[in-house]
Amino acid sequence: MNRATSYNHNTLAVIMGGGQGTRLFPLTQERAKPAVPLAGKYRLVDIPISNCLNSGLQRMYLLTQFNSASLHRHISQSYKFDHFGTGFVEILAAEQSFSSSSWYQGTADAVRKNLVHLRNNSFDYALILSGDQLYRMDFRRIIEAHAESSADITIATLPVIEKEARALGIMQINPERRIVRFVEKPKDPDLLSSLKLDRNAYAGLGVRGDDQFYLASMGIYVFNREVLFELLENELADFGKHIIPSAIGTHRVYSYIFQGYWEDIGTIRSFFDANIDQTEVLPKFNFFEPPVFTRPRFLPASKINGGSIAHAVLADGCIINNARIDHSVIGIRSVLEDGAHLNRVVMMGADYYDSTVRRSSPENLGIPLGVGKGTRVENAIIDKNARIGDGCILSPSGKPSDVDHPLYFIRDGVLIIPKNGVIPSHTIL
């Protein structure tokens, strides 16, 4: 067994999935943020789980709290391991106990309230991950770097330019990559300037590029077992805001520099752009190799009865009837009728195929699932199980960037048809 394999067997992953996801509303109106559909057939939580599996890590806890029913269902239907093996993806939901009756107050508090479960496992390293980021990382490398530097804590950091640095937690390191300063969202120009990464150190750190970089925290941490338990013997709520800054002066905290695609799916605009990017010839994030895992479904291949499709992602079980699709993501079981035109649309699809009974219910107005005949939609997200009638024109163009309406929402300039939404025929927005 080589060292990397040994580290894998001694590592326990903890994925944070309990946040409200208010900036992703209305996509999070009925689901947890990690359960939001992604790229036609996945969920956001599939990303950290797949990164773990592709890195040889098979013991994962997922901490959940808000609107977690669909997330629980997805996990139970997706990730099943050998009964005689040690692998698991186990959900730890917020719960009342004799020691605590409150919900998770932050990332550190969420882990603290589940220490009883973590202590029951044998591990040397705890890998703390976010459930709502889009990236691909081989965790074997950060764990090996953590062990070789004899670190107490290792933080994955990303080189970013000045514009991005103002909205992130920025680290300053010494020549050994040990973190000596941490500043959360530095706005002051002089303060930000003092946190620059030394250009002369780029080569030794493996940093590529000629821009002036700053090292931003990715919200990915490796803790030694006993260090994690020790640092949680308090009431501090959050790793990024409280635990990490206080530990820099008392523990060996190191940086692991990652250079690759990384997107925090925290807003409607970032979510929309990340999905639409999948329609490019060479998208920034590669779903193909190594694979991103998700729930196995037994759906027929998509059927295309004519139409025009350019730069699109088309998931399983769709029916396309002489429709036009441009730079759009079409999710599972989507139906597009004759003359429908989607341009820059993220269509999440449906949880089921339609039936006469469902269609004829009063709230559905007799409108079938999917997009009706002659309807045009652009710059929009169509959430699951939406019904859009014939002859509609739906676009956020010319409207305020944020709108709440009984039939739709606009966030960050993106039109959103909510889950189970119904748009009557001939609606023009």
Keywords for this structure?
429 residues; alpha/beta; Spore Coat Polysaccharide Biosynthesis Protein SpsA, Chain A; UDP N-Acetylglucosamine Acyltransferase, domain 1
CATH superfamily membership of the largest domain:
Spore Coat Polysaccharide Biosynthesis Protein SpsA, Chain A
Instruction: Report the count of strand segments.
Output: 27
- Approximate helicity band: 10-25%
CATH fold category name of the largest domain: Spore Coat Polysaccharide Biosynthesis Protein SpsA, Chain A
Q: What is the overall silhouette?
A: globular
Structural class: alpha/beta
Distance between the termini: 62 Å
Residue share in β-strands: 25-35%
Rg is 23 Å
* Uncertain residue ranges: none
What is the quaternary state of this protein? Answer: single chain
Number of helices: 13
Q: Sheet bearing the most strands, described?
A: 9 strands, mixed
Mean pLDDT: 92
Description:
Helices cover 21% and strands 29% of the residues. With 429 residues, the chain is an alpha/beta fold. The chain has 2 domains: 3-269, Spore Coat Polysaccharide Biosynthesis Protein SpsA, Chain A (Alpha-Beta Complex), CATH 3.90.550; 300-423, 3 Solenoid (UDP N-Acetylglucosamine Acyltransferase, domain 1), CATH 2.160.10. The strands form 6 sheets. Strands 1, 4, 5, 6, 8, 9, 10, 11 and 12 form a 9-stranded mixed sheet that branches. Strands 15, 17, 19, 21, 23, 24, 25 and 26 form an 8-stranded mixed sheet that branches. Helix 3 links the parallel strand 4 (59-64) and strand 5 (88-93). The chain is globular. The N and C termini lie far apart (62 Å). The model has no long low-confidence stretch (mean pLDDT 92).
